[in-house]
From TrEMBL:
<feature type="compositionally biased region" description="Low complexity">
    <location>
        <begin position="260"/>
        <end position="273"/>
    </location>
</feature>
<dbReference type="InterPro" id="IPR006571">
    <property type="entry name" value="TLDc_dom"/>
</dbReference>
<feature type="domain" description="ELMO">
    <location>
        <begin position="47"/>
        <end position="221"/>
    </location>
</feature>
<keyword id="KW-0496">Mitochondrion</keyword>
<dbReference type="InterPro" id="IPR006816">
    <property type="entry name" value="ELMO_dom"/>
</dbReference>
<dbReference type="Pfam" id="PF04727">
    <property type="entry name" value="ELMO_CED12"/>
</dbReference>
<protein>
    <recommendedName>
        <fullName>Oxidation resistance protein 1</fullName>
    </recommendedName>
</protein>
<feature type="domain" description="TLDc">
    <location>
        <begin position="325"/>
        <end position="491"/>
    </location>
</feature>
<comment type="similarity">
    <text>Belongs to the OXR1 family.</text>
</comment>
<dbReference type="Pfam" id="PF07534">
    <property type="entry name" value="TLD"/>
</dbReference>
<dbReference type="GO" id="GO:0005739">
    <property type="term" value="C:mitochondrion"/>
</dbReference>
<feature type="region of interest" description="Disordered">
    <location>
        <begin position="260"/>
        <end position="284"/>
    </location>
</feature>
Amino acid sequence: TLFSSDIELSLFKDLYSSLYEVVNLMKIYEINIITDNKHHNSIDISNESDSMIDIQLDNDLDKHISDMISDIRWTVCGFPSDNPTKDFESNGLLGLQCLISFFKKYPTKAASIALKIRRARLYHCNISSTAVQLAKITSQILNLTPHPESDDKPLAHMARQTHTWALLSNVDAFNEVFDLSFFTFDESWKYIIENQHNNKIDVKIYSDVVYETQLVLNHIINKLQPTTISSMWDHWIKIKLQRYEHSLSNNASIDISTTTSANLSNSSSTTALDNHTGSPNKLDTKLDGKLDNNVVSKVREDVNINCEIVKSNHGIKTHIFGGSMILALDEIMQLERGLPTNYQCYNWQLLYRLSKDGSDLNTLINSASTTTSTIYLLVILDSNGSKFGGLITSRLGTSNGGYIGTNDTTVFTYIHNNNLEMYSSSGSNSYYLLTTHEVLALGGGGDFAIYLDSDLQAGSSGPCATFNSPSLIKSLNQQFSCVEIELYALVSIGDTLHHKHNNDLSIL
C-alpha cells in the first residue's frame, strides 16, 4: 500500500541498494573530517554524533520492505521522513530516477553532498527535495514540453529550443544535465555556505544555492549552447577554472589540499567518475575548497546613474550598461530572478531612455537596430509612481498592422508594495506585440496590457486576456502619463554593443 505501482516499488528498491556504497563513503568522509578537524578548526562537529561511524550495514535486498523503509541509511543520507517514499510523492518520480542514476555513477560526490545536507539539519532542505528541485530545473533549462506518448519519442522531440536538439540526441542527455546540476549545486554550496563567517545555514541560504545552480546551468546550456555531452562538461570545467583563477587574483582563502578530498580521490569508488567520458574528473577534487569570498548575490550601482551596474552571482557576472533611472537595486534583482529561466543571466544594454533620447516612438523602435539581439526589456515609470513593463522576445520594428512575438513575452508590474508581479502568456490568444509608427502595444483581445502612443507621452493599461493580467498601473481609469521609459537589449555575457551610450560606461 506504500507504493502506487510496481515501478515505484522497483525504483525504491533500486535507490535502497544504491545507498550502500554512498553511506560507506560518507563514513569515510566523516572520519576524515573529524581527523582533519584536529588540525583545522574550520568545521564545527560539536553537535555531530558518532552513530554513523558505527553503523553496521548489510546489502540484503531480500529483507522485508518495512525493514528497508526503517533502515538508518535513509536518515544518514539526509532523507527526512520516517517513510522515505513520501519524499517523492509530489512530482518527484523523475527526481527519484535521476537520483538513483547519480548515486550509482558518482557515489563519491553523492556521499559528499549527502553529508553536507545532513549536517545542515534543515528539514525541508534535504537530499530528496534537492533531487526533485534539480530535476525540475533541468526540465526548465532544457525547455522540455511533454507530449502524449512521449516515452516513445527522443528527448529532442520534446524540446522547444532548437539549439538543444543536438545535445538531446544523446539518449542519456537528461540524466547528464541532471548530473551537471548536482555537481553545480555542490560547487554553489561551497561558494555560498562554507564561506559564511558564522557557518550558519538557513532556508534562505539554501535557496540561494539552488538559485545559483539554476543560473550556472542556464548559462552553460542556453548561452554557451553545447552540442555534445562532452562539450557541456568542458564548459563546466572552464567555468570552474575561471572561478578558481578569479579567487586567486582576489587573494581569496584557498585550500587545495583538503584532506577529505585527497582521501576520497584515492578511493576505488572514484572509478566511475574518472572513467566517465566527457564528465568531470579528478580536477573536481583538486579544486575543492574555499574558492570565492564574493558569495552573496548582490547588485552594485556606481555614483553616476549612467555608469555600469554589476550583478554578481558567484563567477557569472551580468551587467546593466547604462544604469536605470526607474528601477531601484532590489527591483532589478527581483526582475532578474523573475524573468523566465532562458532570459536570466544576460547583460542588459540600454538602447533608449526617454529623458535623454526624446519622446518619439520611432526613435525608441529604431534604437533596436543597433543590436543583433531580439530580446528586450521595456520599463516604464508613470506620473503616479507605477513601475511596469514587459519582456519582448522578437525583433522590435514596425509591423504591417499585425501582431508578432512569441509566447515567452511577459509583462510585469511593481504596483503592490514594490513587489514584482509577472504575467506570462495565458494561451488564450497570440496578441503579443504590435508596433507601428503610431503605437506600441503588448497584449490584446480586450484591453491592452501596455499601450503607448506615438509621442510617448501617454498610454493605457487594462485587464488583458493575452497574459490574464490586471491593469499594471495604479490609476483606476487605466490611463497613464509617461515620466520615464527605458528600453534594454538582453545581450549574452561577453558580447559588447557599440552604442551611443557606451561613452557613459565604466566597464569592469
